[in-house]
């Protein structure tokens, strides 16, 4: 036993000697005694990993433990105020005059960020000029001498950007920055092509530089930005909302086809698009993902895969035209409520909370249509955990529809049955309790209830 304890102690000491901490040190001019938050990026998701306070000179330091993952991080003071950095197991030191885009950042130490900010500088300036020249070339008389000069300058700017990006990647092949630059490199189209041909070229080559097998792209915004950028290419092709949605579905299929080379990347993009489409109410896109997903082709049953499979099944179950999951519960007065027994031409299922400001915006709209219960019934299911808070809110507002509260927060049975992750969430049911709408805002709700 003594030998075992001695061995474990020596091994622990030996391993500790090789553990290393790194630091992110910065100075932001004029920012005295302010809290700064270090956020880790995973696509559009941000998670706080550390906090630091600036001193009287605006200086601060984060200590990065050995187990801190490499990837993109941002230092944030408040909404829209952030400094973006690549962290890859090295010390980082920088100074900047502020958080705004025009405030220059100087990287004092960090190979990764010297490369990255070198690239951002030339990309920002050249792409701005290329966009201006592109619009000019599109509208300028082609017979004029200046037209040819504009094309020449356009191509010069494109070559400058591509050459500099190539140099940064080729001279630093083992860096994370090189992998990010490769994925982010803009695709610049021949400005003399007709608009239709430009669109075809972009759609065909948009992902040429993206390595979908590189899981480090997950730990940044580059992959999600590419996905959004690709889907946006279809906006100009559509003559109606329905046509745009159909084009978007084709875009989704293309993204997933590329992503099939790696399970983690595929899962990440499925999750990202589901979250994005849920936030904008793109039901057609959600149903398409649920029916077209090929998650089952991957053998490894990761935790994310299992969660996504459950999400996709829930999307299918709650799709427009499907029967709403039935439930039996009691309202806050103790009366039994059975969804299928509600006799009304339309039923509104409203998931809300007393602390939800957006709920306060839509509930008066629903209430304005509530009166004749044979035409409209409302079942308001609260996410509240405090009965006192709930009753106070109902007393203040006076809503006398059916009020239900499981008082289990996000863990209520009905909440889980309907996959509620945000408030307010609204389902409109017809007289047979089939889902006919999941409106997001006041106007959409009013459209269903008129």
Written account of the structure:
The protein has 450 residues and is α+β, with helices and mostly antiparallel strands. It has 14 helices and 15 strands. The chain has a 5-stranded mixed beta sheet with strand order 13-12-11-14-15, covered by helices on one side. The chain has a 4-stranded mixed beta sheet with strand order 4-1-7-8, with helices on one face. A 4-stranded antiparallel beta sheet has the order 3-2-5-6. The longest helix is centred in the first third of the chain and has 29 residues, at 111-139. It is globular, with a radius of gyration of 27 Å. The N and C termini lie far apart (79 Å).
Question: What descriptors fit this protein?
Answer:
5-stranded mixed sheet; alpha+beta; 450 residues; 4-stranded mixed sheet; 19% strand; globular
Summarize this entry quickly.
This protein has 14 helices and 15 strands.
List the helices and strands and how they pair.
Blueprint: H1 2-18, E1 22-28, E2 35-42, E3 45-53, E4 59-64, E5 71-78, E6 81-87, E7 92-96, E8 105-109, H2 111-139, H3 145-171, H4 176-184, H5 195-205, H6 222-232, H7 241-259, H8 263-280, H9 283-292, H10 303-317, E9 328-330, E10 336-338, E11 346-352, H11 357-368, E12 376-382, H12 387-397, E13 402-405, H13 413-417, E14 425-429, E15 435-437, H14 442-449
Parallel strand pairs: 1-7, 11-12, 12-13
Antiparallel strand pairs: 1-4, 2-3, 2-5, 5-6, 7-8, 9-10, 11-14, 14-15
Helix pairs in contact: 2-3, 2-4, 3-4, 6-7, 7-9, 8-9, 9-10, 11-14
């Amino acid at each position: 036993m003594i030998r075992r304890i001695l061995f474990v102690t020596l091994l622990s000491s030996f391993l500790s000697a090789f553990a290393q901490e790194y630091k992110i040190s910065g100075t932001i001019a004029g920012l005295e005694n302010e809290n700064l938050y270090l956020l880790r990026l995973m696509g559009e998701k941000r998670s706080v990993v550390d906090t630091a306070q600036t001193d009287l000179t605006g200086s601060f330091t984060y200590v990065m433990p050995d187990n801190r993952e490499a990837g993109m991080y941002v230092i944030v003071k408040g909404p829209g105020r952030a400094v973006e950095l690549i962290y890859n197991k090295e010390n980082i030191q920088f100074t900047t005059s502020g958080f705004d885009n025009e405030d220059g950042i100087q990287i004092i130490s960090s190979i990764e960020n010297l490369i990255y900010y070198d690239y951002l500088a030339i990309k920002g300036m050249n792409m701005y000029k290329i966009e201006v020249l592109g619009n000019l070339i599109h509208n300028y008389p082609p017979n004029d001498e200046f037209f040819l000069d504009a094309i020449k300058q356009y191509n010069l700017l494109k070559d400058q950007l591509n050459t500099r990006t190539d140099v940064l990647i080729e001279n630093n092949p083992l860096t994370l920055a090189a992998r990010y630059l490769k994925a982010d490199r803009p695709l610049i189209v021949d400005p003399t092509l007709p608009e239709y041909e430009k669109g075809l070229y972009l759609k065909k080559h948009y992902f040429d530089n993206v390595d979908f097998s590189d899981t480090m792209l997950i730990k940044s915004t580059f992959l999600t930005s590419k996905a959004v950028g690709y889907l946006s290419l279809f906006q100009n092709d559509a003559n109606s909302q329905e046509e745009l949605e159909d084009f978007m579905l084709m875009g989704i299929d293309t993204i997933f086809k590329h992503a099939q080379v790696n399970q983690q990347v595929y899962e990440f993009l499925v999750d990202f698009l589901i979250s994005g489409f849920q936030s904008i109410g793109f039901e057609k896109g959600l149903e398409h993902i649920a029916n077209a997903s090929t998650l089952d082709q991957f053998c490894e049953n990761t935790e994310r895969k299992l969660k996504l499979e459950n999400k996709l099944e829930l999307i299918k179950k709650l799709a427009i035209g499907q029967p709403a999951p039935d439930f039996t519960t009691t309202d806050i007065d103790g009366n039994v409520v059975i969804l299928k027994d509600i006799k009304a031409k339309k039923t509104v299922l409203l998931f809300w909370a007393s602390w939800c400001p957006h709920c306060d915006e839509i509930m008066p709209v629903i209430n304005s249509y509530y009166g004749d219960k044979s035409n409209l019934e409302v079942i308001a299911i609260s996410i509240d955990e405090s009965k006192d808070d709930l009753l106070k809110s109902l007393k203040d507002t006076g809503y006398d529809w059916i009020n239900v509260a499981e008082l289990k927060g996000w863990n209520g049975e009905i909440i889980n049955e309907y996959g509620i992750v945000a408030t307010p969430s609204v389902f409109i049911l017809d007289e047979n309790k089939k889902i006919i709408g999941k409106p997001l805002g006041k106007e959409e709700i009013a459209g269903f209830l008129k």
